[in-house]
Amino acid sequence: MIEPLIANLRARDTVSAREAQLLQSIIVRQRRFATDEDLVTEGSRPPYSTLLLDGIAARYRIVENGKRQITALHIAGDFVDLHAFPLKTMDHGIVALSPCLVAFADHGDLTRISENEPHLTRLLWLLTVIDGAIHREWIVAMGRRSKKSHLAHLFCELFARLKVVGRVSDDSFSFPLTQQELADALGISLVHLNKTLRLLRNENALQWTQRTVTVLNWERLEQIAEFDPGYLNLHVEPR
Amino acid sequence: MIEPLIANLRARDTVSAREAQLLQSIIVRQRRFATDEDLVTEGSRPPYSTLLLDGIAARYRIVENGKRQITALHIAGDFVDLHAFPLKTMDHGIVALSPCLVAFADHGDLTRISENEPHLTRLLWLLTVIDGAIHREWIVAMGRRSKKSHLAHLFCELFARLKVVGRVSDDSFSFPLTQQELADALGISLVHLNKTLRLLRNENALQWTQRTVTVLNWERLEQIAEFDPGYLNLHVEPR
DNA sequence: CGGCGGCTTGACACAGCTCAACGTCTGTGG
DNA sequence: CCACAGACGTTGAGCTGTGTCAAGCCGCCG
């Protein structure tokens, strides 16, 4: 059941059968959320962390003028609020952008892991710092790339991450977001997002129909995005 | 010598004398860097992490058109590349924006802490997730705030963080950056940064002369920024 | 079949960029 | 101690990117 998490970890380091077993044993209470439902609300202090097993979710903040900024997109295998284990309080909400299947790890159990399983602890720590690396990449894209490049970059990133957890087939992946949600992730208006999408479509770089994205020309997309997957740390080494 | 780090930690949890001592013992080899010198270079794999003891440093990335984006500003007490302990490879550079004094913690010693000191490990983990929280706040500011509000927010954040490590007196702090560097942090052009600064000056919110920032009207600045320091996690609780 | 949510497009306004010129400060060498 | 060079800051003009508003379209679901 926690295969995507194990896939995420095994893309970065070896994980013993015993460690995988241990993780399995503390991730419990499977639950479904509907589209637009909050998995976690801003300001809450959940005594557990949430592992996404299927679907797409987003971390977001609403600012005072009512605008929303999405700060991260999450897919199967992502521990969406693992950072709340050291942090305790959620400084943002997490919403399901599609139907989501999740399971939970109690913070008490995570504390026990941190007391007895140093290697596993470092792997969980690793997951949170990769989140940070992705945040930095988003900052760079928002600040210093064209919107076209930024959008292409986001698709490249999702493609690479979804591949790791086996959610890509025939260069396609399920992507049931609305354009407004994508606009909120890039920090631009809906209208401008729509026009930016057309730029990518005009280059025959990708297609997005029936809630499915198909990469038509990976080289072109990668080049528009100036995409370098290094920040995702997709190579096995001792951590 | 590592007082600012201890101040940072004690603003978030209790740290025993023994733990402080232990940290002290692994943070070694003090060194100075001149302005514009790289503390850490992109792509390197340092076998140690760098604690900033004095000065201001920035994480940055250069994109292909030659533009630079600063993704984080660091001050005394910040472990500027602690995330490279789990990550191993630096996906960005870190540059001194003023003369900097630093010291180093070998990754071997950090591994030993992760094996024997679960609480201290969680505290170090905490520092990296607070970095992540700051990144998210920057994403929100870049995407959904006006530039004036974004700039005010950055000053509010620095003010709050510098206070924790005792670098604020009389509502003033040393801030020897150039306007180009600030522009690179906000992701805007130098000219526009200059004009945005004037907006804050016109409101008598703050003053920035002789490499020193003085907050003239904290309430107004906070209000322009819609600043809520929650994300900095400046309260003591068991982690 | 009708209504609604989401997508698309065009017109226009304005925020932010680039270019270019000029002002100001500081450190250095004569 | 002064003169100067170079780096940094300031300002204006004109152009481009992005936002807002508004209308129309498409496709799905009740």
DSSP strand tally of chain A: 10
Order of helices and strands of chain A: HHEEEEEHEEHHHEHHEEH
What would CATH call the architecture of the largest domain in chain A?
Sandwich
Here the CATH topology of the largest domain in chain A equals: Jelly Rolls
Q: Look at the structure and give the CATH class of the largest domain in chain A.
A: Mainly Beta
Low-confidence stretches of chain A: none
* Average pLDDT of chain A: 97
**Helical stretch tally of chain A:** 9
Give, in spatial order, the strands making up the sheet with the most strands of chain A: 2-6-4-5
Characteristic terms for this protein:
9 helices; 239 residues; 2 domains; homodimer; Jelly Rolls; 44% helix; transcription (chains A, B); 10 strands; alpha+beta; WH_DNA-bd_sf (chains A, B); DNA-binding; globular; Arc Repressor Mutant, subunit A
